[in-house]
Amino acid sequence: MLVLLLSACASDVRSTRLADVDLTDMAAVQELGQRLEPGERAAFTTFVVKHVATSAAFCGRKLVGPDGREPGTIGEAIELTLAREADERRAILEYEASRGPLQPVFDRWNELIAERDLIIDRQALLTAQHGPAASRLPEWDVLQARLAENGSKLTEIRPIIARKGN
Hints:
It is a single chain. The protein has 166 residues and is mainly α. It is built from 6 helices and no strands. The chain folds into 2 domains: 92 residues, no CATH class; 63 residues. The protein starts with a helix and ends with a helix.
């Protein structure tokens, strides 16, 4: 009977109190995780890695429930982790929707402009260091090729940007 009770307790990992688990011992965490369903295992791992303040990858925000309490059991930690991940996904989707369909094009345009400016700055540095001989350096040819490729990409995007400006 005692063995049956112990095995029943052992199988209900979700009710294990977090205070009774050394969350810095990854072997113990992994052993507990193996006794969870795959989705719960992933959520528990995320909790340990991102939401435990002693973790090197701590996200900076303690995981608490609507009542402001930290999770007391593995099950509560899993539920709060899944809820936070759902909230984060929802926030990302809302943000993306608020940006409008052309925002990624404008983002790409800005990236290409910044890349072009870096290439031109590098060419200016080479010219300052080597004078007119800079244009005969192998690096100059590489920069010219990158500048041409960058210009082609900007030319492709320019009509979209121009239409949006009208």
